[in-house]
Structure formats: structure tokens, C-alpha cells
Design brief:
With about 110 residues, the chain is of the alpha+beta class. The chain has six helices and two strands. Helix 1 runs antiparallel to helix 2, helix 3 runs antiparallel to helix 4 and helix 4 runs parallel beside helix 6.
């Protein structure tokens, strides 16, 4: 199976919250640390779509929890530059179990 096809399968499964197909794509070699949406990671997309089980699986598979991007604008207009992480997403989208899991994995407790 072509790498691109496997990665596309991963992206679709993440957006749909389809854990079995996320697992299959990972088993077939999909890179969970690739940044497919410009700045948003696969984990960030799972969190934004509120797919906690998918997010938990990605974290347990070793997704890069240190990834961040510079956010310079928002729907409300320009903002001061700031970094956003998957943990920030989990906090914003009210997924306390994911926040806690990220904190445990990174050794940072807030």
C-alpha cells in the first residue's frame, strides 16, 4: 500500500473518530507526527474534533507532545504571537482526561 494512501486513511479516520481505522493506518506505517493540515497536528485535529479515544491512542503510540505552532491570528482578528500545543487544545475543548494524560506523559503537572 502506498504511504500517501495510508496517511490519507489516517487523516480521514482521525477526523471521523474511527479508532479501528486509525489503529490500522498506524499498524501499516502511517506517520502520526506528520503535520498534514499546515500547522495543526494529527493529535490536535483529534482533540479539536473531540475524539478522545483517538487522541488517547495517539498519545499512547508516542505522538510528539512537544509539537507547537505560532498562532498569529484568530477568528476575532489579529492577535499577539503565541504558541499552541495539543495540551492547549485539550484544555480549550474541555477534555480534562486528555489534559491529564498529556501532563502525565510529559511529567508536567499544572
Amino acid at each position: 500500500m502506498y504511504r500517501r494512501h495510508i496517511h490519507e486513511r489516517l487523516l480521514i479516520a482521525v477526523e471521523q473518530g474511527d479508532l479501528p481505522n486509525v489503529q490500522l493506518a498506524v499498524q501499516q506505517g502511517a506517520n502520526i507526527n506528520e503535520i498534514p493540515w499546515g500547522m495543526e497536528s494529527v493529535l490536535m485535529r483529534a482533540i479539536r474534533c473531540r475524539h478522545s479515544l483517538v487522541a488517547e491512542y495517539l498519545i499512547k503510540q508516542g505522538v510528539d507532545l512537544g509539537y507547537h505552532y505560532e498562532k498569529t491570528s484568530s477568528p476575532r482578528g489579529p492577535t499577539r504571537p503565541m504558541q499552541e500545543t495539543a495540551r492547549d487544545y485539550a484544555e480549550f475543548y474541555d477534555l480534562p482526561d486528555i489534559v491529564e494524560l498529556i501532563d502525565r506523559k510529559t511529567g508536567h503537572f499544572r
